[in-house]
Design brief:
CATH architecture: 2-Layer Sandwich
Number of domains: 1
Mean pLDDT: 84
Structural class: alpha+beta
Largest sheet: 4 strands, antiparallel
Strand content: 25-35%
Number of helices: 4
Radius of gyration: 15 Å
CATH superfamily: RRM (RNA recognition motif) domain
Length: 107
C-alpha cells in the first residue's frame, strides 16, 4: 500500500491532527485496521488514530482517506461521536460483532 498525503493540519483547539491522503492498493479496498497500521508506519504517527472515512475512487485502485490523530483515546472519546468510535474499536469480526451488540442492547 502506498500513501500520498494531500493535506495535514494541526487543530490545536480540538487537540488533534487532521490528515487527508490518497492510498493506492492492490485487490479489495483495505479495511480500517490495515489503513491505520500503514499510516502509523508511513507517517510515524503515535497516538489514537480515528479513520473518519475511506472513499474508493471509481475504477481505480485508490481511495481518499480522512483520518484524525489524537494524543490519547480519552481525548478522542471527549470529542468524537459514539458511532464513529464504535467503528474504530470494532474487532476483526466486523459486522457480526455489531449485530450481536444491537441484539444485546435490545434485550
Amino acid at each position: 500500500m502506498e500513501i500520498e498525503v494531500v493535506d495535514r493540519k494541526e487543530n490545536k483547539l480540538l487537540e488533534r491532527e487532521e490528515i487527508h491522503c490518497i492510498i493506492k492498493y492492490e485487490g479489495p479496498t483495505p479495511n480500517r485496521q490495515k489503513v491505520k497500521e500503514e499510516l502509523k508506519k508511513a507517517l510515524g504517527l503515535n497516538g489514537f488514530i480515528v479513520i473518519h472515512r475511506i472513499r474508493p475512487m471509481f475504477g481505480m485502485m485508490q481511495a481518499k482517506v480522512y483520518a484524525k490523530v489524537y494524543p490519547s483515546e480519552a481525548v478522542a472519546r471527549k470529542i468524537e461521536e459514539d458511532y464513529i468510535l464504535k467503528r474504530e474499536t470494532r474487532g476483526k469480526g466486523g459486522k457480526e460483532e455489531a449485530k450481536e451488540e444491537t441484539k444485546e442492547e435490545a434485550t
